[in-house]
Amino acid sequence: MSDIALQQQIMPRIQLDRIVPMAVTTWFSIAAVGHWIFCVYIVAAFFPPIAENGMQGLKGMHLPSGFNEGDFIGNIAAISHVLLASIIIGGGPLQLIPAVRNRFPRFHRVLGRCYLVAAVTSALVGLYMTWTRSAIGDVISHIGISGDAVLILVCALMAVRHAMARRFVEHRRWALRLFLVASAVWFSRVGLMGWVMLTGGVGVDFKTFTGPFLYFLGFANYLLPLGMLQWYFHCQQGAAPWVKSAFVVSLGLLTIYMAVGIFAATMGLWLPRM
Ligand code: HEM
């Protein structure tokens, strides 16, 4: 084979190998900004009322079941759930930035432990709230979010086990899965608001917060990101060029949808009302 023919065969592959990480970095950069906007909202909306009025602060919050008179455990659960959310949503993307990991390894370790404890506690508390006091959705939505809680527990356990055994490649894979499932609540807000902006809310009953699209989203908000991550791992392990191209196109479309959703969620949910 001539040098030119060989070059023509190798060049597209080399470019694809560059385009896959570029697509992932673009997706991550936009997702990180979206996470931090949600984190600022969480801190601004939930911290001041709790700091000023303790448990009574729940009364004025945008929580579906908020403050329940006499339900001490439920109210504590709701408070801890929203406070821990700031560590999960704000800290998750920070853990994945290589520059932060390499330049501040101690910070990475401390935040990693806090993140893990926050995600596990929040999942357990979330399960408790969902099945004892949640005022939104129905049994299908409850099963959807409970599936996420179970996956958070599984991914956290696997990430810790591999870290303790110093199997860092496997640890990294489970930590990435943990990030995605612990961010499912973020994906669901962004997914819903993007859908409302693009379709006006087809398949959503806003009164009962049920409907075909919400049932789909209730599972897709963690299964779709997990599936995309698995596909990315496959691309990293030398998948066929067409598999990598299909990955880049799919992730590109999902990134555009996510950017629309972040914009809609920021404008509709997270910016303060004037
Ligand atoms: C671990 C990641 C999670 C984060 C960061 C998170 C974050 C939040 C936030 C910020 C809220 C307040 C509502 C809002 O402003 O949007 C909330 C409410 C709620 N979350 Fe989660 N959540 C997580 C996981 C879960 C899980 C796994 C479940 C269920 C199994 C769950 C069940 C609930 C329930 C029932 C409420 C409503 C509380 C009430 O009205 O009293 N969450 N969550």
Automatic annotation (TrEMBL):
InterPro entries: DUF2306_membrane
Keyword Cell membrane: no
Key words of the record: Membrane, Transmembrane, Transmembrane helix
Protein name, entry field: DUF2306 domain-containing protein
Domain of life: Bacteria
Organism: Simiduia aestuariiviva
Transmembrane annotation, as ranges: 20-47, 72-98, 110-131, 143-164, 176-198, 213-233, 245-271
